[in-house]
Amino acid sequence: MKHYLLYLLLILFTFNSFSQTGFSTESFDIARGDLETNIYEKDSTANALILYEYGKSYIDKTDFDLKTEIKRKIKILNRQGFDQSTITVRLYNDKDTKATIKEIKATTFNLVNGKVESTRIKPKNIFTEKYDDNYTYVKFTLPAISEGSVITYSYKLSTPFLYKFKGWNFQGSIPTLYSEYHTSIPAIYEYHIKLVGFLKLFKEDQVLKRDCLIAGNGGKSDCTNSVYIMKDIPAFIEEDYMTSKYNYLSRMEYELKTYHGFDNITKHFTKTWKSVDKEFKTEPTIGRQLNKKVDVEKLLSNEVLIETNQLKKAKDIYDFVQDNYTWNGDYKIFKDVKIKDLINEKSGNVSSINILLHNLLRESGYNVKPVLLSTRNNGFPTKIFPVISDFNYLIVHTTINNKAYLLDATDKYLNFGQIPFRSLNHYGRMFDFKNGSQWIDVKADQVSSIQFQLDLKINEDDLISGIINTRFSGYYAQIKKENYYTNPSQYILDLENDMPTIEVIEHNVTSEDKESENFKEKMNIQFVEENIVANKIYFNPFTFKFYDENPFKLQERSYPIDFGYKKGFTYIFSLDTQDKYDIIEIPEDKKVKLPNNVGEFVIASKIENNKLKIYFKIIFKEAVYDPAYYPYLKEFMNQVVDNQKNSIVVLQKK
Fold first, then answer.
1. What is the per-residue pLDDT across 388-434, written as a single tens digit (0 to 9) for each?
2. Residue 498 and residue 387 share a domain
3. In sequence order, which residues have a C-beta less than 8 Å from that of residue 50 and are 6 or more positions away?
4. What is the CATH number of the domain that holds 477?
5. Which CATH number goes with the domain that contains 329?
6. Pairing state between β 347-348 and 326-327
7. DSSP state of 43
8. Do 495 and 503 meet the contact criterion of CB atoms below 8 Å apart?
9. Do the Cβ atoms of 76 and 153 come closer than 8 Å?
10. Is the same domain home to 246 and 285?
11. Of the four, 215, 250, 465, 637, which is 20 to 30 A from 193 by CA?
């Protein structure tokens, strides 16, 4: 029995060994399997993949510049992967010094009639072009590319700019089978080092090397030599419901913290929040403008000035700024910030508008504080140390009756306490000039929802007609209000174009105005065509679909599903057949829940006295879902879309 089990294990081991990739993934050298293997089973959508990459960065003993050696081996699987044969290297320079590249070697390997043929790039096909005052691009395209080719290239970089040690991207737009990065950092340089992304390192080692760097005056420094390895790295493919990809791309990042010179002089390159807070008070743009006084009696109406209800007064001040000043679209929060110019010109950037709101509230007796944040497409600001350039947006924090509010007056269709979707980027830095700054959560607490209620009947002409009531809340209301109040006639036209099977006989907005928390509308409609076969009417009850297709299409996703806010959708359908038809087929009841009850959808149908009622609801109880939920969300959405697209009601004429 033991011999049989051993034999079975050997068979399984052999099968697994040969069923896996034939690529040579831990060597820069070309193996025959690299050329003969033309599929990547783990990702059938891949057009190319990195088989092997190696990087090494260190401080040169001679000139003390940062040197980096790069080697990369890439498999071209099909024609769509040909773009991977064009390589671009970006070099930074200033007025006096610049980064350089040398020893560029690039070769294409092809299997032709069973023989390996190699074609090297010629120096004349390597090009240098100036991008701007600070960057130069070096570009080259490998020759003789065809489907199945393997390309290799290597080069060496040198830079005198040590503020940022050379970072390393483990993840990119194509899969990577093996990525290895070596660093040697002298103790005289202290860097903030962080691994970004959700992927785990396969290996991480550090060893101390004595006296790796020796100065001319006899000073010595030890070095920490590190090795970082990742394997089987999936391609990073952008998909709906995500913030900036730079929040999630797996990579190593370095930022110089302190330099300990051989002359015993220490220089600190990163500040503390305490020092930033102190400087921010007198900062020439935002800091000084936040302390400017404004004439509330000149700007605000007497009705607002004498209002005694603190919340209502704050809302009135917010409405004043929102209605009278227009955002010019600029995010330049540290440039062209002048409250005086905004008041005169009625238009300004984010900082100008929200600082005016801040100052009006402060002068009216409210406890207000500015909040710096980074928008969703700008990436998360680092929390490890202050990097003011990470921030590109400013909003206002106030507390009224022990309740905190985040305010932004740049959008005329936002409600008090609601900030733009672009700002929902998890956290921001709130500045209190008396007690110091702190991180705060920046999120939407309320659920944003859409509700359709259809009350229909079979009329005298055997057509389906009736009333549709809709209600949009939260961010859905903001979008609808903007579309409607910007151009009501175009809104109606777009509504009719979106519903080709329905004629809108009458349309009314039933919410009060653009300042209403919800957007409500009522439509008197009639179906213009019906699918009638042998005295039977066939139709899909979902005239309005919340999702036309599944937004989740990846085989796997390594970054969170970030909706930005909690979502809810309700569809209530009622049809009175007026005793003209029998209801012979209705959608099947179903209830599906996400793990840990963080979301669900329900569809329930019933017939009472020849009246059909259908209740359909989707709810996402979280604004952000961990990548572990992705396969469940993907299947969840498959069923949501399937039920909306393929539900059928069949009526039989009596």
1. 989 999 999 999 999 999 999 999 999 999 999 999 999 999 999 88
2. no
3. 72, 73, 74, 75, 172, 174, 175, 176, 177, 178, 179
4. 2.60.120.1130
5. 3.10.620.30
6. parallel
7. -
8. no
9. no
10. no
11. 215
Query: 142 near 108, Cβ under 8 Å?
Result: yes
- Rounded-to-integer distance, Cα 220 and Cα 489, Å: 76
**Domain-embedded: residue 125:** yes
CA distance 494 to 507: 13
Give the integer Cα–Cα distance in Å for 415 and 515. Answer: 7
Q: What is the largest CA-CA distance in the chain?
A: 104
Domain termination residue (choose one: 442, 475, 490): 442
Instruction: Output DSSP code: residue 589.
Output: P
Where does residue 281 fall: left (phi above 0), alpha (psi -120 to 50 degrees), or beta otherwise? alpha
User: Residue 648, Cβ neighbours under 10 Å: how many?
Assistant: 12
Of 41, 27, 112, 108, whose CA–CA distance to 75 is shortest? 108
Same domain, 613 and 513: yes
Structurally, the chain folds into a number of domains equal to 3
Residues 6+ apart with CB under 8 A from 234: 42, 43, 171, 175, 556, 558
The last residue of a domain, from among 268, 288, 313: 268
Query: Is the residue at 15 inside a domain?
Result: no
206, 208, 212, 223, 260 from 187: Cα distances, Å = 13, 10, 10, 6, 8
Alpha helices in 487-569 (DSSP H): 488-498
Q: What is the C-alpha separation between 300 and 294, in angstroms, rounded?
A: 10
Q: Tell me, yes or no, whether 352 and 259 share the same domain.
A: no
- Same domain (yes/no): 226, 316: no
> Is residue 16 a part of any domain in this protein?
no
Q: pLDDT tens digits for 169-217?
A: 999 999 999 999 999 999 999 999 999 998 999 999 999 999 998 887 7
C-alpha 51/C-alpha 16 separation (Å) is 19
pLDDT digits (tens, 9 = 90+) for 226-262: 999 999 999 999 999 999 999 999 999 999 999 998 8
User: What's the pLDDT score for residue 21?
Assistant: 55
Q: For residue 601, give Cα distances in angstroms to 64, 186, 240, 564.
A: 62, 57, 20, 19
Residue 85 per-residue DSSP state: G
DSSP string, 176-211: EEEEEEEEEEETTEEEEEEEESSPPPSEEEEEEEEE
Q: How far apart are CA 169 and CA 185, in angstroms?
A: 18
Query: Measured at the alpha carbon of residue 295, what is the angle toward residues 290 and 297, in degrees to the nearest 5?
Result: 140
Q: Are residues 342 and 453 in the same domain?
A: no
Full DSSP string of 100-139: EEEEEEEEEEEEETTEEEEEEPPGGGEEEEE-SSSEEEEE
pLDDT for residue 218: 79
| Per-residue confidence (pLDDT) for residue 519, from 0 to 100 | 97
DSSP tag of 277: H
Q: Do 250 and 333 reside in the same domain of the chain?
A: no
pLDDT of the residue at 9 = 38
**CATH (domain of 128):** 2.60.40.3140
Residue 5 domain flag: no
Among residues 438, 426, 429, the alpha carbon closest in space to that of 395 is found at 429
- Neighbour-count burial for 479-515, b at 16+ CB within 10 Å, e otherwise: ebbbbbeeeeeebeeebeeebeebeeeebebebeebb
- Kindly state the tokens that stand for 450: 């859409």
Full domain range(s) for residue 386: 273-442
By three-state DSSP, how is residue 516 classified? coil
Q: Within this chain, do residues 639 and 549 fall inside the same structural domain, yes or no?
A: yes
